[in-house]
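Re: the 115-residue chain
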Amino acid sequence: MTLVYKVCQNQEWEEANQTGFYPGSKVDLEDGFIHLSTIDQLKITVLKHFARQKNLILIEFETDKFENEIKWEKSRGGDLFPHFYGKINVQLANSIYNLELGSDGFHKFPKNLFS
């Protein structure tokens, strides 16, 4: 089992819960897939793509539950990143964490993620 994470605005996830499916962010929709990150990729993803943004959450998923809708594709620095093709059923979320923005302008990750 591999855990992957989606970073998004809290409001996006709340809207997805209304319909039962998360279609992705604006960037995801433009790229044709939902960008996900492994735990090792997560901090750099947040720093690069979500710097200083408020109201973010981390949504944790098990890749085993995605069947064939996830592909591991080369991206930043040649690393393989998990990309989800389709809409994600919100019931597949393992855990949801608030990603607080600290007074120093950097996000504070839940301690249990990196223990």
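The domain at 3-114 is CATH 3.20.170.20 (ADP-ribosylation fold).
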